[in-house]
Amino acid sequence: MNMRPIWTIRIFFLVMCTVAGYEISQVRPEWVNNGMSGLIIGFGLGSLCVAMDEMLKGFSLRAFSAATFGLFLGALVAGLIDRSGLFADADDPQRRIIRLGLFLCFSYLGMVLAMRSNKEDFSLIIPYVRFAPQTKPESLLLLDTSVIIDGRIADLIEANFIEGTLVVPQFVLHELQQIADSNDPVIRARGRRGLDMLSKLRQLKTNEIKIHDADFPEESEVDAKLLRLARSLGAKLYTNDYNLGKVAELQSILYVNLNELANALKPVILPGETFSLRVVREGKDKGQGVGYLNDGTMVVINNAHNMIGQQVSIKVLSLLQTGAGVIVFADLKAPAAA
After folding, report:
1. Count of domains in the chain?
2. For a surface tag, which of 39, 94, 248, 316 has the fewest beta carbons within 10 Å of its beta carbon?
3. In a 3-state reduction of DSSP, which class is residue 166?
4. Packing angle of the helix pair 222-233, 170-180 (nearest 10 deg)
């Protein structure tokens, strides 16, 4: 979260408090002896308010409402006990001390119990009243350079598979610009594709995209900055970098690797299935032909070396799992009908 606007307001508030203290010293000299004392008192009161604000920054509106409700109930119970006649024989000084103790004790207990309770507990105290559910926390999706250049994230968003606010750090934009300015034409093309994909993401209406200004000068690597930003924002990291994903996993940072997602969504092929496929080239062994599925999976077809360029019907024999993926072995069943 960017704290600059908050501190701008705080500084403005301190200046106004200091000026107000000086003005009071000029209008009401019987309250404040001189202008310097007014400046100091005004600045001190403003600093006290800022300090209280900093102490209560984790105190939500719901917690404040619960504390107020608990304070009211505690004061009510204390008043009932005070009026019950239990302390009727006490003299006035003792009665004041007892009353003060009752209000402090029951007010504190009421506030603490109310803040610890959930909305269902309140419904037992106030029948037929249900509190509205809290707003769901914003889902932040942190994009790295590789997933922006890849571009499949835009297709997933258009297909309504991804919901949340897309976050692109300023240092990722800088890295994309450096890639787009490279002297290598291949690298330069990748960088320009990434910038084009960002423009496409901005045009999507379903998901908001934000450019985050946070930077970590002490970190020299973009990957390290991404991990720190993901942790500080509580965001889910989207990447195609296998190593970055594993480091994120070790640091208990949620991440999604689009390559792993694509592999998980590949159609399951089982031995005995038949389908149509185009033979594109010869295989390594004699008589073999090779074709490819839509997801890039290689299919080795026996006795199909003389059918290159043709659409044939095949029957799956077996599958071989390799480091690069799955290789399908199949037999030629019959040429597809023209």
Report:
1. 4
2. 94
3. strand
4. 150
Sequence-separated (6 or more) residues with CB below 8 Å from residue 62: 134
CB 251 within 8 A of CB 228: no
CA distance 230 to 171: 13
Inside any domain, residue 8: no
Q: Indicate whether 78 and 144 sit together in one domain.
A: no
**Measured CA distances, 81 to 13, 29, 89, 245 (Å):** 43, 46, 14, 62
Q: Tens digit of pLDDT for each residue in 230-282? A: 988 889 999 999 899 999 999 999 999 988 887 777 777 888 888 888 899 88
Condensed to tens digits (0 to 9), the pLDDT of residues 323-335 reads 667 888 998 886 5
Question: What is the domain range of residue 214?
Answer: 140-264
Closest CA to 211 of 192, 193, 198: 198
Q: Write down the residue that tokens 């409700």 correspond to.
A: 69
Choose among 156, 149, 75, 69: nearest CA to 115: 69
The 3-state DSSP class for residue 329 equals strand
d(Cα 42, Cα 22) in Å, to the nearest integer? 7
Q: Are strands 255-257 and 274-278 parallel, antiparallel or unpaired?
A: unpaired
